[in-house]
Amino acid sequence: MTIALALAALLAVPAAATDDAGSLIIACQAATANRAAFRRELEDSGAQLQRWKDEGALQAYQLLFSRHVDSRGWDAMAILTLKDAARWKKIEREFPAGLPANVLALTSAIETVPASLVRHGVHAKATEPVFLVIPYEVVVPTPEYVAYLDDYVLPQFDGWAEAGVLASHAVYLARYPAGRAWQSLLVLEYRSDQALATRDAVVAKVRAHLAVNAKWKAMSENKKKVRAEKAPVLADPAAARQIP
Predict the structure, then answer these.
(1) 160, 173, 196, 222: which sits with the fewest CB atoms below 10 Å from its CB?
(2) Does 69 fall in a domain?
(3) Quick count: other Cβ atoms within 10 Å of Cβ 171?
(4) Cα 60 from Cα 79, distance rounded (Å)
(5) Pure H helices in 105-165
(6) How many structural domains are present in the chain?
(7) Are 175 and 115 within 8 A, CB to CB?
(8) Residue 239 domain flag
(9) What pTM, to 2 d.p., does this model score?
(10) pLDDT (tens digit per residue) in 154-210
(11) Domain span including residue 101
């Protein structure tokens, strides 16, 4: 059985922006027996991430860890917002995937997916956040998929936020998607485990409300022709600890 770490470098601007430095989704695997040690070492590496942020290579960073061991998915995800792509290129020569040697020693495989943040919203501050990360296979051209996001998906996010369950959302598209396991990645931050537990009921209620809109209903009936949902990962935020 394996552990998967996903290291994601994500921009805070749409892909169409001229100053978009690009994004990376880096997935790593390690032996399950190393899971606890891997998490400790990766959290401690947050001090280095902070230094790179202070130096201007990163705009922001965040670490997530899957709640359950599952060899089919990742077990950790670092979300990095790049600020200086040229600087990051130099960093990766010494720190592959942005990981120090002690973390790499616990890692058996790494996959990197360049990506762009295409939609993002913050609805509320979560005091006990929990994340649901959902990969999708996209089967239509990008402009059509983005229109699907705007017309079908985002109205639901607004409804979930109004219901008091969703804290933030982000949608990333793989830049070079051929052969990748996913083309679109949805990162949903729920306000708490209690909020996440109401997900099915809230989704049904919001969809019933939106169904009175003919355009939204048509998109709903056609969604299977737009994307195919893959196995989601339930994750918790992990503090990037400063090393004394």
Answers:
(1) 222
(2) yes
(3) 23
(4) 8
(5) 142-148, 154-162
(6) 1
(7) yes
(8) no
(9) 0.86
(10) 999 999 999 999 999 999 999 999 999 999 999 999 999 999 999 999 999 999 999
(11) 2-234
CA distance 67 to 71: 13
CB atoms < 10 A from the CB of 93, how many?
7
In Å, the largest CA–CA distance within the chain is 58
DSSP 205: H
Give the model's pLDDT for residue 141: 95
Long-range pairs for 155-163 at CB < 8 Å and ≥24 separation? 155/210, 155/216, 156/203, 156/206, 156/207, 156/210, 157/121, 157/123, 159/202, 159/205, 159/206, 159/209, 159/210, 160/202, 160/203, 160/206, 161/121, 161/123, 161/124, 163/198, 163/202, 163/205, 163/206
pLDDT in tens, 16-68: 333 567 788 777 788 999 999 999 998 888 888 889 999 999 887 878 898 99
CA-CA-CA-CA torsion sign (95, 46, 85, 79)? positive
Could you tell me if residue 242 is inside a domain?
no
Task: For 116, list phi and psi in degrees, rounded to 5.
Answer: -130, 140
Residue indicated by tokens 């893959």? 230
Amino acid (1-letter code) at residue 165: V
CATH number at residue 112: 3.30.70.100
